[in-house]
């Protein structure tokens, strides 16, 4: 009876289109009152325990860093270098679009920031150069999703926090899938635009672009090199990236004023104001579920009804692809990761493997209606019809799905340990 009432409560809140934080709070309060000891104050205590983690500092720092680069010229200078290098290729500008998204995603860790920063520069350039509008929209919209796979990735950080998995290991594991995605997308861009004319580039132009972009090119080297060498923790890497971006933009490029930092910090705080309450409530619910042994009971039930790890992996992919259509990637990870991890561990699936699977699955959700974030951002930024943008991402979504299958069934090849 109590379980039926809880399900009805959840359905009612969903029908009323309530915020996910309110839904999670209602679930936590209900379970505390009827299944726990009835002390609702424990919800607040669990929220504090959940947020009392040093690694959480990396999230606002990486987001702030991405916003600083969007305000300044680091992104534009990186794009200029990539455009010059790829110009001699047929369809070089299309390849530059994918590579620019990859490089910028490796710095900002944000899908929407990557889409907006790279798209603002390259979408007009692609149109002026005569590239197909549908392809251009698809490349930029899908290219932005690379920000959630290639480290430093905010969703990977959140997965590491809620499951207590090494974030450095998750970052390493995201490298090969991210590179494979970028290479296959670039190959598709070359094939799709093979009849576009080549553009000759003089050595002087290349040297000039490298000179202008040298400080921008050093950023991913410092950031990712520090993380993978073990010299930086993810939190320290975020702080170094932010400090480096500020120094380059304010004192070297001089494309940003110190007074601009206030507005950038304000916009970052607004974004965090939506993320952190969700994170706090999700952590509170997770602590409660663990105390009530819900994951253990669910694990026992699933292992009785699922034959093998392979069948479980297929079931997880189907579940997450559906969830990605309706839930934001961060919400999906915060809600589902703590529940799925114990079950996956029962089948001998490595937590890092599960983390990459979740992120790639939910990455496809950026490109699927009705909630697809990148579809909405692209529609607003490029002022193009929603239906056109949905059609434009189909080839790229198929590429991501193919890489997902490789990660699912060939983790020994696709995941760097």
Task: Give the arrangement of secondary structure elements.
Elements: H1 2-15, H2 20-34, H3 41-51, H4 58-71, H5 74-86, H6 92-108, H7 111-128, H8 133-143, H9 154-163, H10 167-192, H11 203-228, H12 234-252, H13 260-291, H14 294-305, H15 309-324, H16 329-346, H17 351-364, H18 373-382, H19 386-392, H20 394-409, H21 411-414
In short:
This protein has helices at 2-15, 20-34, 41-51, 58-71, 74-86, 92-108, 111-128, 133-143, 154-163, 167-192, 203-228, 234-252, 260-291, 294-305, 309-324, 329-346, 351-364, 373-382, 386-392, 394-409, 411-414.
Strand content: under 5%
Shape: globular
Q: Based on DSSP secondary structure assignment, what is the total number of beta strands?
A: 0
Low-pLDDT stretches are none
Tally of structural domains: 1
The overall pLDDT average reads 83
Give the termini distance in whole angstroms: 47 Å
Largest sheet: none
The proportion of residues forming helix, as a percent range, comes to: over 70%
Give the structural class: mainly alpha
The helix/strand order is HHHHHHHHHHHHHHHHHHHHH
Q: Give the radius of gyration.
A: 22 Å
Report the total helices.
21
Looking at how many chains there are and whether they match, the oligomeric state comes to single chain
């Amino acid at each position: 009876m109590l379980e039926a009432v809880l399900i009805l409560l959840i359905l009612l809140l969903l029908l009323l289109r309530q915020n996910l934080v309110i839904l999670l709070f209602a679930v936590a309060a209900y379970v505390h009152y009827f299944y726990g000891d009835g002390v609702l104050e424990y919800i607040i205590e669990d929220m504090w325990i959940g947020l009392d983690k040093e690694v959480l500092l990396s999230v606002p720092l990486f987001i702030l860093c991405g916003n600083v680069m969007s305000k300044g010229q680091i992104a534009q200078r990186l794009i200029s270098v990539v455009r010059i290098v790829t110009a001699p290729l047929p369809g070089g500008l299309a390849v530059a679009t994918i590579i620019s998204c990859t490089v910028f995603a490796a710095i900002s860790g944000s899908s929407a920031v990557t889409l907006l920063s790279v798209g603002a520069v390259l979408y007009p350039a692609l149109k002026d150069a005569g590239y197909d509008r549908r392809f251009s929209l698809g490349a930029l919209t899908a290219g932005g999703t690379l920000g959630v796979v290639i480290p430093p990735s905010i969703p990977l950080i959140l997965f590491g926090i809620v499951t207590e998995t090494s974030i450095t290991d998750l970052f390493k594991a995201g490298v090969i899938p991210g590179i494979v995605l970028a290479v296959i997308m670039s190959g598709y861009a070359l094939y799709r635009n093979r009849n576009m004319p080549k553009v000759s580039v003089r050595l002087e132009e290349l040297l000039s672009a490298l000179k202008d972009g040298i400080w921008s090119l050093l950023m991913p080297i410092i950031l990712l090199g520090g993380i993978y060498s073990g010299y930086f923790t993810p939190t320290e890497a975020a702080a170094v990236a932010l400090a480096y971006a500020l120094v380059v933009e304010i004192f070297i490029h001089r494309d940003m004023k110190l007074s601009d930092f206030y507005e950038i910090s304000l916009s970052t705080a607004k974004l965090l104001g939506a993320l952190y309450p969700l994170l706090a409530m999700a952590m509170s619910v997770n602590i409660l579920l663990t105390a009530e042994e819900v994951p253990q009971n669910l694990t026992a039930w699933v292992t009785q009804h699922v034959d093998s790890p392979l069948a479980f992996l297929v079931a997880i992919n189907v579940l997450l692809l559906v969830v990605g259509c309706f839930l934001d990637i961060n919400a999906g990870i915060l809600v589902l990761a703590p529940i799925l991890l114990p079950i996956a561990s029962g089948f001998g699936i490595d937590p890092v493997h599960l983390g990459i699977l979740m992120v790639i699955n939910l990455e496809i959700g950026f490109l699927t209606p009705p909630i697809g974030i990148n579809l909405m951002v692209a529609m607003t930024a490029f002022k193009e019809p929603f239906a056109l943008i949905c059609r434009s991402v189909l080839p790229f979504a198929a590429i991501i799905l193919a890489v997902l299958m490789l990660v699912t069934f060939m983790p020994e090849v696709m995941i760097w340990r």
